[in-house]
Amino acid sequence: GRAFLVAIDGPAGAGKSTVSRLVAERLGFTLVDTGAIYRTVALAASRAGIAFDDDDGLGRLLESLPLELRQVQGGGQAVLLGGEDVSKEIRTPAISLGASAVSARPVVRSGLLELQRRLARSAEAGAVLEGRDIGTVVFPDADAKFFLTASAEARARRRYDELVAKGEKVGFDEVLADQEKRDRSDMERPIAPLRPADDAVRIDSTSMSKDEVVDTIVAEVRRRL
Ligand code: C5P
């Protein structure tokens, strides 16, 4: 049969990345981090000197984007651009904003639709897709959908701790401001705005541990397997 598809959507910093990685690991499913794909488009554009609002340039870039996802031993996913592992480079604050900018361009969203569908469908047992519009646009017929949120403060705090742990020099206020900017642009864009699918299970993780969130999702998926 076809791969069992789990959609995990939500705003920046809700803990989607860690939770999705752990859920995929527990279920033995392939992880597809779609944010990493948008980030890689932003990185490739920036390297090629293509502006984030240059639809023609972005369209040409997408026609032959040498992007691959590779599952990492022990869970997680590496992103390769022309064979080069760019997993770290796509996580800087500048590329975060770039990803949000390119993701608002229809040419980019439609250009990446098939890629995301192909990656998920080629999974063996199942796939965990992490993003913003998986349950609403990419796979409206996903087998299990989750919408993960947390308060803006809690989300910015987590992102800040993550960046500091990686040795990035950032301030909390800057992280919160960048997050608000991205949230606004993700929710207000005309195509595929960030919103929960009607049939998504909503999880507010503000006062939950990541293990509690993972347990909740895994239990719900097992019920439907
Ligand atoms: O999840 P992550 O923070 O890595 O995503 C980076 C950016 O890519 C988001 O701010 C959002 O603008 C965009 N994105 C999107 N649709 C997705 C995944 C990410 O628009 N499915």
* Tally of DSSP helical segments: 9
From the spread of the alpha carbons, the general shape counts as globular
- Average predicted local confidence, pLDDT: 94
What amount of the residues lies in strands?
15-25%
State the low-pLDDT regions, or none: none
Radius of gyration, Cα only, in angstroms? 16 Å
Helical content band:
40-55%
Order of helices and strands: EHEHHEEEHHEHEHHEH
Structural class: alpha/beta
Largest sheet: 5 strands, parallel
First-residue to last-residue Cα separation = 12 Å
Provide the list of bound ligands, each named once.
cytidine-5'-monophosphate
Strand arrangement in the largest pleated sheet: 2-6-1-7-8
Count the strands? 8
From the structure provided, what is the oligomeric state, counting identical versus distinct chains?
single chain
Descriptive report:
With 225 residues, the protein is α/β, with parallel strands linked by helices. Helix content is 50%, strand content 17%. The chain has helices at residues 16-27, 34-48, 55-63, 93-102, 106-121, 134-138, 152-165, 172-188, 210-224; strands at residues 4-9, 30-33, 67-71, 77-81, 84-85, 126-131, 144-149, 201-204. Strand 3 (67-71) and strand 4 form a beta hairpin. The longest helix has 17 residues, at 172-188. The two termini are 12 Å apart. The model has no long low-confidence stretch (mean pLDDT 94). The chain binds cytidine-5'-monophosphate. Residues 12, 34-35, 38-39, 99-100, 103, 131-133, 182, 186 line the site of cytidine-5'-monophosphate.
